[in-house]
Amino acid sequence: MDISQHRSVYGAFTGLVKWGVIGCIVLLALMAIFLV
């Protein structure tokens, strides 16, 4: 793989991690509101 492929894979990975963390935070906030 050359550097452009590495950069695109890294960009996709960081985007996935970012949206996964945001999703977990939203899920925990909703659980705190509706289950407590």
Automatic annotation (TrEMBL):
InterPro entries: Cyt-C_aa3_sf (IPR036596), Cyt_c_oxidase_su4_bac-aa3 (IPR012422). The keyword Transmembrane helix applies. Coiled coil: none annotated. It comes from the Bacteria. It holds the Pfam family COX4_pro_2. Keywords: Membrane, Transmembrane, Transmembrane helix. The chain crosses the membrane at residues 12-35. The keyword Membrane applies. Residues 1-35 form the Cytochrome c oxidase subunit IV bacterial aa3 type domain. This is Aa3-type cytochrome c oxidase subunit IV.
